[in-house]
Amino acid sequence: MSKGTKTQKEATRLAHAGREPARQHGFVNTPIYRGSTVLFPTVARLEANAQDFTYGRMGTPTVKALEEAIAELEGGYRTLLTPSGLSAIATALFAFVSAGDEILVADTVYRPNRRFCDNVLKRLGVTTIYYDPLIGAGIKSLITKKTRVVFAESPGSQTFEVQDVPAIVKAAHAAGAVVILDNTWATPLYFKPFAHGVDVSIQAATKYIVGHADAMLGAITATEEASRAVEKAHEDLGLCPGPEDVYLGLRGLRSLGVRLERHQRSGLEMAHWLAGRPEVARVLHPALPSDPGHALWKRDFTGASGLFSIILKPCTQGAVAAMLDGLTLFGMGYSWGGFESLILPFDPADYRTTTTWQAEGPALRLHIGLEDVEDLKTDLEAGFARLGARA
Ligand SMILES: *Cc1c(COP(=O)(O)O)cnc(C)c1O
C-alpha cells in the first residue's frame, strides 16, 4: 500500500519511496531476494496465511519495494508488477471482461495491445471497438450496456495524439465502465492518472523506469476499488517478474527525475530544430505550441518525455534507407526510454482501423537519449544529406 507523505515533493519521493533501510540491516537499497519457498513457523501461521510473504510468485521484499514506489508516484492505491509492459496491459484488460462484453480501445494504442484484443479477447467472446483518440466526450455515443472498459493511451503510440482523458473518464464512469490508461510516455512523473479519474494505469517499465535498455518489466497500478479485480487476475494468471529485472526497475527509478528532465529538454530542442529543417513536413510533439494536442497537453501534463515523431516531405523509401543506414549515434530498434537515441521508420496505415493516416511523406519516430544534442544534430544532418542525394 502506498504510504508516502502527501507533502513531500516528487524528487524526494523518487529517492525514498519503497525503501526501508532499517529492515535491510541499514543498507540503503532493498537487495535482490531470490526465492520460491517461504517458510511458515507454525501451522497456525500457515493456515491463516498470516505473513507478509508466502510464496515467491506472490511477491518478495524486492517486488514490494518497487510496487510501493510506483503506487506512490502514480498516486494509486496498489501496484502489481508483471514481466513486461504487454503482460501488464493484457492482465489489466483480462481483469475486467467476460464473454459478451465490449471494450473501447483507442485506435492509436501500442500495436501489440491490439494483438491481445483481436486474438485472445476475441476468442473469449469479448468484442473490441477501436475509437478515434480525438473523440473526447463523444465517446458517449460508442458506449453501450455491454461496455466494460475504455482503454486510452495518451499521447498515442507513434503519432502522439493527446486524448481528453477527463472527458473520457466522465462518460465511461457515467455508464459504469472502467478506464485503463497506458501512461508509459509521460511516466508517473509527467501525468498523474488517478488525479484525472483513471481507474487503472499501465507502465511499460521497460522504457523510462528501467531506463537503461537492459530489462523487461511492467506495472499495473489501480484505485482501491479496481485493485481487487486486478489482484485476482494477476494471481490467476501466475505472473511474476524476475528478481534481477525488478531490482533494475528500482535502480532506474531513483534517477528517473533527472533523466527525464534531460530527455525533455533535449527532445524539445531536437523537435524545434527538426521543425526548421527543409526535409521535414511536420513534427508530432505535443509540447510544441504548433501541435494540435498542445492545449490538452498543457492542461493535463507537467512535462514531455524524449519520444516524438516527424513526417518527412515526400521522398522515396530508398532515400529514407540511405538516411537511416548511415547514422552513427541514432540506433534503429524497438523500444525506447533508455539512455541512448533511437530512430525508427513506421507506417500506421498498416494496422489502424478507425482513423485514416494522412501524411505528406514517410514517418520516423525518434527517441532522444542523453547524448549531447549538437552531436545528435550532426548525425541527423549527415543523414539528411544522404537523403537529399537519393530523393
Ligand atoms: C513498449 C510499450 C509497451 C509494452 O512494453 P513491453 O515491456 O515491451 O512489453 C506498452 N505500451 C507502450 C506505450 C509501449 O511503448
The total count of helices amounts to 13
Ranges where pLDDT stays below 50 over 5 or more residues in a row are none
What Rg is obtained from the alpha carbons, in whole angstroms? 22 Å
General form: globular
Reading off the top of the CATH hierarchy, the class of the largest domain is best stated as Alpha Beta
Helix content: 25-40%
SSE string, helices as H and strands as E: HHHEHEHEEHEHEEHHHEHEHEEH
CATH topology (level 3) name of the largest domain: Aspartate Aminotransferase, domain 2
Strand content: 5-15%
Architecture overview:
The structure is a single chain. The chain is an alpha/beta fold. The protein has two domains: 250 residues, Aspartate Aminotransferase, domain 2, CATH 3.40.640; 135 residues, Aspartate Aminotransferase, domain 1. Helices cover 37% and strands 15% of the residues. The chain contains 13 helices and eleven strands. The strands form two sheets. It has a seven-stranded mixed beta sheet with strand order 1-7-6-5-4-2-3, sandwiched between helices. Helix 6 links the parallel strand 4 and strand 5. The longest helix is centred in the last third of the chain and has 20 residues. Pyridoxal-5'-phosphate (PLP) binds next to helix 4.
Characterize this entry briefly:
This protein has 391 residues and is of the alpha/beta class.
